[in-house]
Specification:
170 residues; alpha/beta; Rossmann fold; two-stranded antiparallel ribbon
Length: 170
Protein backbone atom coordinates (compact mmCIF):
# COMPACT_ATOMS: atom_id res chain seq x y z
CA UNK A 1 0.00 0.00 0.00
CA UNK A 2 1.47 3.36 -1.02
CA UNK A 3 1.44 6.40 1.18
CA UNK A 4 0.53 9.69 -0.44
CA UNK A 5 2.54 12.79 0.46
CA UNK A 6 0.60 15.32 2.50
CA UNK A 7 0.29 18.92 1.41
CA UNK A 8 0.64 21.37 4.23
CA UNK A 9 -1.39 24.53 4.00
CA UNK A 10 -4.35 23.10 2.07
CA UNK A 11 -7.33 24.29 4.02
CA UNK A 12 -11.00 23.58 3.84
CA UNK A 13 -11.98 26.91 5.38
CA UNK A 14 -14.83 28.51 3.42
CA UNK A 15 -15.12 25.43 1.18
CA UNK A 16 -18.33 23.57 0.39
CA UNK A 17 -17.99 19.88 -0.43
CA UNK A 18 -20.45 17.22 -1.58
CA UNK A 19 -19.95 13.56 -0.73
CA UNK A 20 -21.75 11.24 -3.14
CA UNK A 21 -21.77 7.79 -1.55
CA UNK A 22 -22.73 4.41 -2.99
CA UNK A 23 -24.86 2.25 -0.67
CA UNK A 24 -23.69 -1.01 -2.27
CA UNK A 25 -21.11 -2.63 0.03
CA UNK A 26 -22.62 -0.34 2.65
CA UNK A 27 -20.24 -1.12 5.50
CA UNK A 28 -17.29 -0.09 3.34
CA UNK A 29 -19.04 2.98 1.92
CA UNK A 30 -20.03 4.18 5.40
CA UNK A 31 -16.41 3.96 6.54
CA UNK A 32 -15.20 5.81 3.41
CA UNK A 33 -17.76 8.56 4.03
CA UNK A 34 -16.79 8.80 7.70
CA UNK A 35 -13.12 9.11 6.75
CA UNK A 36 -13.91 11.78 4.16
CA UNK A 37 -16.08 13.75 6.58
CA UNK A 38 -13.40 13.54 9.30
CA UNK A 39 -10.69 14.74 6.89
CA UNK A 40 -12.86 17.65 5.74
CA UNK A 41 -13.64 18.72 9.29
CA UNK A 42 -9.96 18.40 10.26
CA UNK A 43 -9.07 20.64 7.29
CA UNK A 44 -11.50 23.30 8.48
CA UNK A 45 -14.60 22.65 6.38
CA UNK A 46 -17.66 23.67 8.40
CA UNK A 47 -20.10 20.82 9.11
CA UNK A 48 -22.93 22.82 7.47
CA UNK A 49 -20.86 23.00 4.27
CA UNK A 50 -20.61 19.22 3.85
CA UNK A 51 -23.50 17.81 1.81
CA UNK A 52 -23.97 14.05 1.63
CA UNK A 53 -25.98 12.19 -0.99
CA UNK A 54 -26.53 8.46 -1.33
CA UNK A 55 -26.92 6.47 -4.52
CA UNK A 56 -27.70 2.76 -4.92
CA UNK A 57 -24.31 1.73 -6.33
CA UNK A 58 -21.10 2.75 -8.05
CA UNK A 59 -22.86 2.75 -11.44
CA UNK A 60 -24.97 5.71 -10.27
CA UNK A 61 -22.11 7.84 -8.91
CA UNK A 62 -21.27 9.83 -12.07
CA UNK A 63 -24.86 10.83 -12.93
CA UNK A 64 -25.49 11.84 -9.32
CA UNK A 65 -22.28 13.88 -9.18
CA UNK A 66 -23.34 15.61 -12.41
CA UNK A 67 -26.70 16.54 -10.89
CA UNK A 68 -25.10 17.80 -7.69
CA UNK A 69 -22.91 20.17 -9.72
CA UNK A 70 -25.74 21.20 -12.06
CA UNK A 71 -28.62 21.78 -9.65
CA UNK A 72 -27.46 21.07 -6.12
CA UNK A 73 -25.99 23.53 -3.69
CA UNK A 74 -22.93 25.33 -5.03
CA UNK A 75 -19.88 23.33 -4.05
CA UNK A 76 -16.15 23.69 -4.52
CA UNK A 77 -15.58 19.94 -4.69
CA UNK A 78 -17.36 16.62 -5.07
CA UNK A 79 -16.04 13.36 -3.64
CA UNK A 80 -17.39 10.13 -5.16
CA UNK A 81 -17.17 7.22 -2.69
CA UNK A 82 -17.94 3.54 -2.99
CA UNK A 83 -16.57 0.04 -3.30
CA UNK A 84 -16.71 -2.52 -6.09
CA UNK A 85 -15.49 -5.93 -4.95
CA UNK A 86 -14.56 -8.63 -7.44
CA UNK A 87 -16.86 -11.61 -7.50
CA UNK A 88 -17.03 -14.74 -9.63
CA UNK A 89 -18.66 -13.02 -12.62
CA UNK A 90 -17.52 -10.26 -14.99
CA UNK A 91 -19.95 -7.87 -13.25
CA UNK A 92 -16.96 -6.33 -11.39
CA UNK A 93 -15.24 -5.21 -14.60
CA UNK A 94 -18.42 -3.66 -15.99
CA UNK A 95 -19.37 -1.73 -12.88
CA UNK A 96 -15.84 -0.63 -11.95
CA UNK A 97 -15.15 0.43 -15.54
CA UNK A 98 -18.40 2.36 -15.93
CA UNK A 99 -17.86 4.16 -12.61
CA UNK A 100 -14.28 5.13 -13.45
CA UNK A 101 -15.02 6.21 -17.03
CA UNK A 102 -18.14 8.12 -16.03
CA UNK A 103 -16.35 10.05 -13.30
CA UNK A 104 -13.32 10.67 -15.54
CA UNK A 105 -15.55 12.05 -18.28
CA UNK A 106 -17.43 14.24 -15.83
CA UNK A 107 -14.19 15.58 -14.33
CA UNK A 108 -13.24 16.89 -17.77
CA UNK A 109 -16.58 18.65 -18.24
CA UNK A 110 -16.93 20.58 -14.99
CA UNK A 111 -15.06 23.36 -13.24
CA UNK A 112 -15.51 21.79 -9.83
CA UNK A 113 -12.92 19.54 -8.21
CA UNK A 114 -13.95 15.88 -8.45
CA UNK A 115 -12.19 13.19 -6.43
CA UNK A 116 -12.37 9.46 -7.16
CA UNK A 117 -12.80 7.54 -3.92
CA UNK A 118 -14.12 4.28 -5.34
CA UNK A 119 -12.31 1.19 -4.12
CA UNK A 120 -11.89 -1.65 -6.61
CA UNK A 121 -10.62 -4.68 -4.72
CA UNK A 122 -10.45 -8.42 -5.09
CA UNK A 123 -11.75 -9.19 -1.60
CA UNK A 124 -13.92 -7.73 1.14
CA UNK A 125 -10.91 -7.82 3.47
CA UNK A 126 -8.90 -5.62 1.08
CA UNK A 127 -11.78 -3.15 0.89
CA UNK A 128 -12.11 -3.08 4.69
CA UNK A 129 -8.40 -2.36 5.10
CA UNK A 130 -8.40 0.45 2.52
CA UNK A 131 -11.55 2.06 3.92
CA UNK A 132 -10.56 1.80 7.59
CA UNK A 133 -9.59 5.23 8.94
CA UNK A 134 -6.77 3.75 11.03
CA UNK A 135 -5.19 1.87 8.14
CA UNK A 136 -5.89 2.87 4.52
CA UNK A 137 -8.25 5.84 5.02
CA UNK A 138 -9.02 6.10 1.32
CA UNK A 139 -12.12 8.19 2.09
CA UNK A 140 -9.98 10.75 3.89
CA UNK A 141 -7.42 10.62 1.11
CA UNK A 142 -10.08 11.36 -1.52
CA UNK A 143 -11.43 14.28 0.53
CA UNK A 144 -7.96 15.79 0.97
CA UNK A 145 -7.34 15.36 -2.75
CA UNK A 146 -10.59 17.20 -3.51
CA UNK A 147 -9.58 20.12 -1.29
CA UNK A 148 -6.16 20.35 -2.91
CA UNK A 149 -7.72 20.25 -6.36
CA UNK A 150 -10.29 22.91 -5.37
CA UNK A 151 -7.45 25.20 -4.31
CA UNK A 152 -5.70 24.67 -7.64
CA UNK A 153 -8.91 25.38 -9.57
CA UNK A 154 -9.46 28.57 -7.55
CA UNK A 155 -5.94 29.77 -8.34
CA UNK A 156 -6.36 29.01 -12.03
CA UNK A 157 -9.73 30.81 -12.17
CA UNK A 158 -8.26 33.97 -10.76
CA UNK A 159 -7.76 34.92 -14.43
CA UNK A 160 -11.56 35.17 -14.77
CA UNK A 161 -13.09 32.50 -17.03
CA UNK A 162 -16.91 32.45 -16.83
CA UNK A 163 -18.79 29.33 -15.76
CA UNK A 164 -22.41 28.27 -15.54
CA UNK A 165 -23.11 26.28 -12.33
CA UNK A 166 -19.69 24.67 -12.51
CA UNK A 167 -19.78 23.64 -16.16
CA UNK A 168 -17.35 24.97 -18.75
CA UNK A 169 -18.69 27.29 -21.38
CA UNK A 170 -16.89 27.90 -24.65
Amino acid sequence: MGVQPSRQGVTGANRRVALVVSRFNEEISRELAAGAREALLDAGVDEKDIYEYEVPGAFELAPACRQVVAVGPEVDAVVALGAVIRGETPHFEFVAGVAARGLQRLAGEINVALAFGVLTTDTLEQAQERADRRRGDKGGEAARSALEQALLFERLREGGKPTVRGFRIS
